[in-house]
């Protein structure tokens, strides 16, 4: 397995890995690489839904979702994102967010497998939430560290969320589902959210994933956020998404490490 960091300061490309064959040794390397880099790109995979569930299980136990149109019978672990309603959920996540941020204990890990992809848009953008916090002016960091945000469903999170394994602070905000920043008034709340939105998209900070069929992307949702881009509704695309439960995640025993040391 080769692990090559992307040039952005987050994310890494994994090569020489067939996720169907991943044993305990590979699982350890993958978990360590995800914790270090925040996002893994693993192209050229061939996974049935059951194999995707097994591969996601390398990172912990899975969340399940209600049966809906376009979802797979008997496989509640698979959440389908699609361009057509008969294939899955359409028009989702067109704003910066981490999946499952509306939960009291946010969803730690998302795993996408590209089943079907046309060439008509639908790229996914990623941005590093830890770097976003680190690059703020110290006085802004101090201000933000005292703020909390409320989702529209009432769930409250600190704006600066510490990673449960590494303790590294991240600027954590769902731009679509958050009702506001608590205790600052509506105008200030809106201005803060817009400022964070722009900061996530600052030049040089985002990775754009252009999906090919067979791609897998794994994200540590407490380290990176993502955002969908438009797709031609006439084009057919399906992404099967699986997610790891907060109470079932397996973080590696040792934080840190280097790409060189992990390369095998
Ligand atoms: Fe998402």
TrEMBL record:
<comment type="similarity">
    <text>Belongs to the TfdA dioxygenase family.</text>
</comment>
<dbReference type="GO" id="GO:0016706">
    <property type="term" value="F:2-oxoglutarate-dependent dioxygenase activity"/>
</dbReference>
<keyword id="KW-0479">Metal-binding</keyword>
<dbReference type="InterPro" id="IPR051178">
    <property type="entry name" value="TfdA_dioxygenase"/>
</dbReference>
<feature type="domain" description="TauD/TfdA-like">
    <location>
        <begin position="3"/>
        <end position="243"/>
    </location>
</feature>
<dbReference type="InterPro" id="IPR042098">
    <property type="entry name" value="TauD-like_sf"/>
</dbReference>
<keyword id="KW-0408">Iron</keyword>
<protein>
    <recommendedName>
        <fullName>TauD/TfdA-like domain-containing protein</fullName>
    </recommendedName>
</protein>
<dbReference type="GO" id="GO:0046872">
    <property type="term" value="F:metal ion binding"/>
</dbReference>
<dbReference type="InterPro" id="IPR003819">
    <property type="entry name" value="TauD/TfdA-like"/>
</dbReference>
<keyword id="KW-0223">Dioxygenase</keyword>
<dbReference type="Pfam" id="PF02668">
    <property type="entry name" value="TauD"/>
</dbReference>
<keyword id="KW-0560">Oxidoreductase</keyword>
